[in-house]
């Protein structure tokens, strides 16, 4: 027996190899592999002999070796622009849990900044390391998508769509339009926007789409966009504070604010409080996401099903990976519903900083 010697924490042990099993059973290594994996093209007598040899030698198959033999890594790559934002942390947790239930591993790629993004798509470090890829909320240009296609692997898109490609998300335009339409239905006409920077070189999708929905809702009641009422920044509490401070300082401040994320809305609430104003008596605020703290903050907001989106795209990607023919996905694009959750941060305009409307 030519077993492998393994040292772990100073202790040596003899571990039987697949070659030892093949030698004991009098068959090839390939036959041992097929027999242990339960494949049908092995005679019953041969399979019994292999199993008996493996038992006698206390042979334990290497999961990594089995993955190599099958041509699978049982790993899925997840590409996100940031890991320190609520949306993406929820996505990561959901995808990882869904993969674990199917005995898959997660390989996470956090791009972080434009240079990290460029480096990722230039090098494609996941090559030959994953069975499929999920990309979350990144606007992919043709060169980046071509780099993904060159992997020749199933691809799932979360929060973005591309014709013929597996995707799951929400209708950001319609959801934002619903939120601002609610404000206009209360009588607000000077509605400020606290939005993500649409010129952000990381190019992730929500800012552009939610800003479009904001414009659509105002147009529906005959309100022309006012650049002074559109303040952009990062999708963070700090970004919300800074944008709200600028909005409250304009000569004719808004009577309501629509923030493109709950974190930005939290920042707006802080800026409003610091200015000695009240929500909703002086100014109304609507957010987007319905994060856990939004209920405690009594924030009117758009609820989006983050976990459901992540679970949907992961499940369908795994189904595509399991399709031995690499078949074309049916109904590749799935749009999940959103809901406007009305709490106590909104009311009809009063005598606050923006006047009656």
Strand order of the largest sheet: 4-3-5-6-7-13
Please tell me how large the radius of gyration is. Answer: 27 Å
Helix and strand sequence: EEHHHHEHEHEHEEHEHEHEHEHEHEE
Tally the beta strands: 14
Distance between the termini: 87 Å
> How is the CATH topology of the largest domain named?
Rossmann fold
Short description:
The protein has 357 residues and is an alpha/beta fold. It has helices spanning 18-25, 29-36, 44-56, 63-70, 86-101, 114-123, 142-149, 172-185, 206-220, 237-248, 262-274, 292-296, 306-322; strands at residues 4-8, 11-15, 75-80, 105-110, 132-136, 155-158, 166-169, 191-196, 230-233, 256-259, 284-289, 300-303, 333-335, 339-341. Helix 8 runs parallel beside helix 9 (206-220).
Descriptive notes:
The strands form 3 sheets. This protein has a 6-stranded parallel beta sheet with strand order 4-3-5-6-7-13, with helices on one face. Strands 9-8-10-11-12-14 form a 6-stranded mixed beta sheet, with helices on both faces. Strands 1-2 form a two-stranded antiparallel ribbon. By secondary structure, it is α/β, with parallel strands linked by helices. It has helices spanning 18-25, 29-36, 44-56, 63-70, 86-101, 114-123, 142-149, 172-185, 206-220, 237-248, 262-274, 292-296, 306-322; strands at 4-8, 11-15, 75-80, 105-110, 132-136, 155-158, 166-169, 191-196, 230-233, 256-259, 284-289, 300-303, 333-335, 339-341. The longest helix has 17 residues, at 306-322. Helix 1 (18-25) crosses helix 3 and helix 5 (86-101) runs parallel beside helix 13 (306-322). It is built from 13 helices and 14 strands. It folds into 3 domains: 18-70, lambda repressor-like DNA-binding domains (434 Repressor (Amino-terminal Domain), Orthogonal Bundle); 75-170 and 306-326, 3-Layer(aba) Sandwich (Rossmann fold), CATH 3.40.50; 172-303, Response regulator (Rossmann fold, 3-Layer(aba) Sandwich). Helix content is 41%, strand content 18%. Pfam families: LacI, Peripla_BP_3. It comes from Jatrophihabitans endophyticus. Keywords: DNA-binding, Transcription, Transcription regulation. Residues 16-70 form the HTH lacI-type domain.
